[in-house]
Amino acid sequence: MAVTRPKRSDELANAIADLIIERDLGPGAPLPPESVLMADFSVSRNSVRESLKALQALGIVEIRHGYGTFVGSASSSALQPWLLFRTRSGSSTERLRELLEIREILETELTRRAAGLDDAALREKLLGCVERMRGGGADAPAADREFHEHICDSAGVPLARELVGLFWDVYRAVDLEAVAVPASETAVLHQQVVDAIASGDAERAEEAVHLHFKEVRGRLGAGPYGSQPPRV
User: Fold this and answer.
1) Which fold has domain 9-74?
2) Which residues neighbour 150 within 8 Å (Cβ) at sequence distance 6 or greater?
3) Per-chain mean pLDDT for the chain
4) Beta strands in the chain (DSSP E)
5) What is the CATH superfamily name and number for domain 79-219?
6) How confident is the model over 76-106, as pLDDT tens digits?
């Protein structure tokens, strides 16, 4: 691989990330020692260390003191501090609406796909989550999250699951003053999604998702779509 000297620390971080990709290094694989990176990129040890720390903050690398540097998992959780700050800055209500809009766009298509699978195992998992929601208590939020994760898993798009989970976590962290919704109402909305998936009707599944998010937006006040759900 031809190596050109990076001009700044951010460029060096990008170059190291490119090296990981070009060499097809998977999570847990060791990176070249600092001395090799210094020679390859013609930079100082401090520059290498600064760049590795920046990559570590993103989950791209993992620095194990005394052992070396290894490729990280690059989990979407590394984005959570940034997204949480972004959501809390300015109008948090408006930012929450934006999060909900992005989730709705993603989950509408994922649920449409689930409706076309005729997957009995998926329906069983979703019904189990709904029953836990009906019970209320401390387990209800976990059941709510798992419900949406099961739908993401059924689509076979791991990145979608990570993103939906990230948006869910940030929303829960910011939406601390929302009016509590009775467990029975939450369960009903999710049951409608299950019924729509079981019907195999993609349009019905889409509408059930819109109704679910319409209720959540209603707790935040009138959303950007008024009384109508977004069509995506």
Assistant:
1) Arc Repressor Mutant, subunit A (1.10.10)
2) 122, 125, 126, 129
3) 84
4) 61-64, 68-71
5) GntR ligand-binding domain-like (1.20.120.530)
6) 777 788 788 888 776 667 888 888 899 999 9
